[in-house]
Amino acid sequence: MIQLIDGRVFQGTAKQVVQGMRSLAFNQQPSLKAYVRACVEAAADAGTEMAVALYDDDDGLCDSFVRAMLGAGLAKEVTAKEITNNESPSLTGDNTNKGDGK
Predict the structure, then answer these.
(1) Which of 16-20, 77-81, 86-90 has the least mean pLDDT?
(2) Does residue 101 lie in a domain region?
(3) Cα–Cα distance for residue pair 80/22, rounded to 1 Å
(4) What is the DSSP letter of 101?
């Protein structure tokens, strides 16, 4: 499971995580590549640089993006126990997403 710095939690493959993030975004992007690009640009505007390899396939791109978020401190890996015990802060209670937009 991945927890973003805002407290939202996503689980699944890197692609499922990014799809879940994209489904909750205010500014919907037409593709995962466009969404990742917009996130990287927003992070840079806020002073956080992320090195994301721009793969042609969504799986590679999403894997690179999730690793970059982890490396930049914008997300962290968490366990179900941490979420259940509220050891990881959550902004609005139960924010667990499956990463598939459901």
Answers:
(1) 86-90
(2) no
(3) 22
(4) -
Total number of domains constituting the chain: 1
Q: What is the DSSP string of 40-92?
A: HHHHHHTT--------SSHHHHHHHHHHHHHHHTSEEE--HHHHHTT-S--SS
CA distance 98 to 11: 5
Domain range for 31: 2-92
2: enclosing H helix or E strand: strand 2-4
pLDDT at 86: 63
Q: Is residue 10 part of a domain?
A: yes
- Name the pTM for this structure: 0.78
